[in-house]
Amino acid sequence: MPNVDFVSGVHRATPRDYLARVNEADKADCAAIAGQWGRDYWDGDRKHGYGGFHYDGRWRTVAEQIAAHYRLPPDATILDVGCGKAFLLYEFTQFLPQAQVAGIDISAYGIEHAKEEVRPQLQVGSAVDLPYADDTFDLVISINTLHNLRNFELRQALQEIERVRRGAAYVTVESYRNEREKVNLLYWQLTCRTFHDPQEWEWAFRQAGYTGDYSFIYFE
């Protein structure tokens, strides 16, 4: 269960004003709106979420690194748990044209506005109850999703990822290494329910029986 980082470069490329996030709006109201996972979260004002989540190709490098690291075959089966608009899944199909991709997300809006090329392979659903058979996928990924679950849901979701994979698994979650990063995370987050430092995350992974790879993103 090694720590392998594919995502922090994309994360660091986005500027963040932590104090403005707290001071310019009622943070509680903004979090309540974000937690509906609708248009406001994806394509509304930045104070409610992404402020416009549009395809720009930034996930191509991430997909290429993941595919190379796990030596995915041309016809790999890939599941993204918390796929959102499925930009990452789309990138896999661009250099693995025979790949069979699938995505699931709690947000109906996200699925409805996902990359149209892969939209037929997506569905609305929960990470805690994946509608796939055991040992189905060569790779299961979950990027910046699992920290949005409560602790008992987190355990179920990790066990579901273990159940449906026959190959590799890789998850990325928000974390913090010091008090400054913890404060920045608390200032910035809108939907996070599970706040762990890396050691606590690793404990949670072991408790759930998760044996795949992982990485953390930090709000520096």
Report on this model:
The protein has 10 helices and 6 strands, in the order αααααβαβαββαβααβ. It is α/β, with parallel strands linked by helices and 220 residues long. It has one domain: Vaccinia Virus protein VP39 (Rossmann fold).
Q: Compute the CA-based radius of gyration.
A: 17 Å
How many helices? 10
* N→C terminal distance: 25 Å
pLDDT under 50 segments (min length 5)?
none
Give, in order, the helices and strands: HHHHHEHEHEEHEHHE
CATH architecture: 3-Layer(aba) Sandwich
Number of E-state strands: 6
Layout of SSEs?
Layout: H1 8-12, H2 18-23, H3 27-34, H4 39-43, H5 60-69, E1 77-81, H6 87-95, E2 100-105, H7 108-112, E3 122-124, E4 137-143, H8 151-164, E5 165-174, H9 179-188, H10 198-208, E6 213-217
Parallel strand pairs: 1-2, 1-4, 2-3, 4-5, 5-6
Helix pairs in contact: 5-6, 8-10
